[in-house]
Amino acid sequence: MAINDLLQYVQDAYASLTELSIMIVDSSGNPVTKVSNMTELAELVLFVAKKRASSFFCPEELAVDGWRRPAVVPAGHLGMKSIMAPVFVDGRAEYWIWAGVFIEEETKWLICEQPVSDAREWTAALEQADALPARAIEAKLNEIEKMAAICGELIGGERRKQRYNEYGQLLKTAVTDRAALNGADKLLHQLRKMDERLDMALYIEKCQQGWVVAATSGGKAGQLYGKMVDELFPPLSFLEPPLYPAYFQDAALDPRFSFFVRHGIRPKAMIVYPAVYGRKAEGWVVVGSETASSLPEAMQPLGAALVQYGHLLARCAAADAKMDRHFMRLSMLIEIGRAMRVVQQEEEIVRMMAEFAIELAYGDFVCAILCGGKAVTVHEGAISDEMASCYRDDVLRRYGRGIEQVAKNQVPALRQVGDKTVMEVPFFVRDGHYGVLAVHLKETDEAKEAEVYMTALVSVGVMMMNGAAQGGGGQAVNVQMLSEQLTAREMDVLELLVQGCSNREISERLFISVHTVKNHITNIFQKIGVNDRSQLIALVYQLSHRRQRH
C-alpha cells in the first residue's frame, strides 16, 4: 500500500476520534492527504477565509525553533482555532498535521458578537460549532500528538524500506555485474548511490612517500586527487587488526580532518572503510557529506561489503593480468632460446639476454657483461656508457680472480650500482668465460619474480653459448627488414606485441579498439609469414630489429 494511502487511513481514524477536520500538509502547505471529517466551519475557514488568512497553509511561517509538540494556533478568523502538529521523520519536521476548526469555550460569546462578511453562512456555522473547554482541547492535543508520532514512524519506515531496497539492488549489482565495481572510480560512484546526500568519495592508497588520494568522486573531492594525506587523519592510526568502518560526525570541527578543511571541504558526517587483504589495510575509502549532519547506520556494513568486494575484484583482476604476463613472458623466453640457437654468437646472445631483460620492465636499465678473451659490455635503457664502464670494472675486480667461485656459486644478489638497486645474476660459461646480468629494480618487492626470470634467462643463454662453443650449427634467417613490410601503425602494434602486451593493453596504449588490434595482428602475421606470437617474437630477436645496438 502506498504511504499516502496509509496516512489517509490514520488521518480518517483520528478525525473520527477527535471530531475535528484533519489534513496533512508539507512544509510549504501543500496538501498530502484529503481533508477528513469536513465540518461546515472548517470548510468556511479552508475555502472562504483562505485568501484573507492562509498562515495555517504555510507551517514554516508559524514554526519556531524548538517547536516539537502540537500547539493551538489561529485558524484565520477572529477567535477560531486549530491545532498544528509537526511530523518528525529521521529527526526533522518534514510534514504538519492541521486539525480544526473549534472555538474555545470562554471566547464563544465574543466571536458571536463580532460582525463578519457573509454573516448568514458564518452565523449558522458558529451556532452549530461546539465550544470546547480547556480540558477537552488538551485531550485533543494529546491525540493529535499520537497521530503525528504514528505518521512519522510510517513515513520513516517506508523510507527505510525503500532505502534497504536500494541497498539490496546495489549489492545485487555488485554480485551480478563485476564491471560495476571494477576499478576505484566505479567503486566510489557506486558508494555514493547509498545516499543522495553523499557529495564526496575518495580512495586513499599507500605509496613510497606515505598515503595519497588515488581516486575521487564528487565536485569538490576532485581537487584532492594526488594529494598526500596528513598522518593525523584518523584511519591512518587504525592500521592494526581488527579493522572496521569508522563513523565521524562534525568532522570539519576535528583537527584530525584539517586535510579536508585546508582544501575548502567541510564534511559534517563521514564514514571511512578499510580495504583489507590478509588482515592488512591496503587502502581506505572515505565517503562524506557537507550537508547531512548524520548518515544512516546501515551505510556502514553495506559500504564495508561493497568496498571489500571491490577490493577483492581489483586484486583478482591484477592477479589475472599478472598471470597473463607470466604466460607471455615464458612463451617469449622459449622463443628467445630458439633465436639464440640460430644466432650462435656469444656477444649476440648476451645482447639478446639484455634486450629481453629490459623488456620485463623491472627498472630503467639493464647491463650485461661477458668476460673471456675480451670483456663485452651490453647495456640497455637509462644507463650511461660511463656508468656501464664503471660497473664492468667493478665486476672484473670482484670476479676476475674468482672464476671457480662463480662456477660453484651462481647465486643472484641485490647490489648497488651508483644510487640504484640491481638484481645481479652471475653465470659461468666455460673455462675463462663468465659474466653477469644486472637488472635495475624500481621496487624491491619484485626481487623474487625478477630472480626467477633472470635466472631462467641466464640458464638459457649459457646453454646456447656452450652449444655455440661446441660448434653447433644453425640456419640464418633471410627475410626483408620488417619496417619495409609493415605500416607505421603495424610497427607500433608489433613493438607492444614483443613487449608481451595483451590485445586489450595494446588497444589502451594506442587508443584503438580491440577489433582493430586483432586486424593489425592478422596483417602482421600474413606479411611476415608466421602463425603465432611466439614465432613472431623469435623472428624479431633473430633480426635484432627492435632496438638499436650500442
From TrEMBL:
Protein name listed in UniProt: LuxR family transcriptional regulator
Organism: Geobacillus uzenensis
Keyword Secreted: no
Keywords: DNA-binding, Transcription, Transcription regulation
Keyword Transcription appears in the UniProt entry: yes
InterPro entries in the record: PocR_dom, Sig_transdc_resp-reg_C-effctor, Tscrpt_reg_LuxR_C, WH-like_DNA-bd_sf
Domain HTH luxR-type: 479-544
